Amino acid sequence: MSFFKRIFSSEKKDPSLSEQEKQTLDKGLEKSKTSFFSKLTKAVAGKSTVDDEVLDNLEEILVSSDVGVNTTLKIIERIEKRVSTDKYLGTDELNKILREEIAGLLSENNTDDNANFAISPSKKPYVIMVVGVNGVGKTTTIGKLANQFKKAGYKVVLGAADTFRAAAIDQLQIWADRVGVPIVRQQMGSDPASVAFDTLQSAVSQDADVVIIDTAGRLHNKVNLMNELSKVKRVMQKVVEDAPHDVMLVLDGSTGQNAFEQAKQFTAATEVTSLAVTKLDGTAKGGVVIGISDQFKIPVKYIGVGEGIDDLQVFNKVEFVDSFFK
């Protein structure tokens, strides 16, 4: 049994990936892996032991790979402890040690071991409110989520509550048609809370299992954003008492440190309960998943590792680290 399987052996609910999903994940992280390990190879060139210079270089590599300063310092501190325990730690072991420490960090911080495309039978309809700035892949993520839930046998309804952009409503309509699920929409400029209310009423009348509500991706004024999202929540609760059951923040992994800033802004404006990190296949900044998971203590539920309709995956921390260091 590998180190990772032993670490997470008690987490029996941690979903495993199919062989095809593993291949998609490997391909999606290829740019991040290539960039990271080419830098690591240069950092240890000519070195036989892990000394201060190697650790300084490793710190720079992790930061430049968008792991984030605070998370990087945690990883370096863990490795320093192991170096002090074994004075003759070789650079050939550095890859294995890094792998183990990052796996341990994700295990501590990403606590949602039930993340999958299944919902609790006691929550019906299960309401997901999706937030995030424009351009991060929010609407695409909603479409792919709807597809996965439908494939799992659930009845899904979409709500187009991002009423400030006509393109957002039309794009969600395209996804609804593509997946084959109903959508509730109004005219551009309509009250988002009204759309959310109508969506939940429609979902209840249709005996739907899952409702996914799109919201406006504006972040120019945190107070306005907070007020708007709070109003949407209050209105939804008139129909479904404990809605929303999940407030999912979508972040663009290719933006690196900007994704951290967006996470700060949104977590300050509303209670975020899960994260989806998109566009990891087109970037060398895959390390951002590690940093975001560590810094915000909010579970990363899903990652986008390709453009295909099935390329939104459950974030499996075992498989992610395994693929990154493969």
Automatic annotation (TrEMBL):
Positions of the region Disordered?
A: 1-25
Organism domain of life: Bacteria
Q: Which cellular compartments is it found in?
A: Cell membrane; Cytoplasm
Pfam families, per this entry?
SRP54, SRP54_N
Q: Which residues bind GTP?
A: 132-139, 214-218, 278-281
Q: Return the EC number.
A: 3.6.5.4
The UniProt entry lists membrane topology as: Peripheral membrane protein
Where does the record place Basic and acidic residues bias? 8-25
Q: Which InterPro entries match?
A: AAA+_ATPase, P-loop_NTPase, Signal_recog_particl_SRP54_hlx, SR_rcpt_FtsY, SRP/SRP_N, SRP54_GTPase_dom, SRP54_N_sf
Taking the first listed entry, what is the main subcellular location of this protein, grouped into a coarse class?
Answer: membrane
| Family stated for the protein in its record | Belongs to the GTP-binding SRP family. FtsY subfamily.
Please give the function described in this protein's UniProt entry. Involved in targeting and insertion of nascent membrane proteins into the cytoplasmic membrane. Acts as a receptor for the complex formed by the signal recognition particle (SRP) and the ribosome-nascent chain (RNC).
Q: Which NCBIfam families match?
A: ftsY
Which protein is depicted?
A: Signal recognition particle receptor FtsY
Q: Tell me what organism the protein belongs to.
A: Flavobacterium sediminilitoris
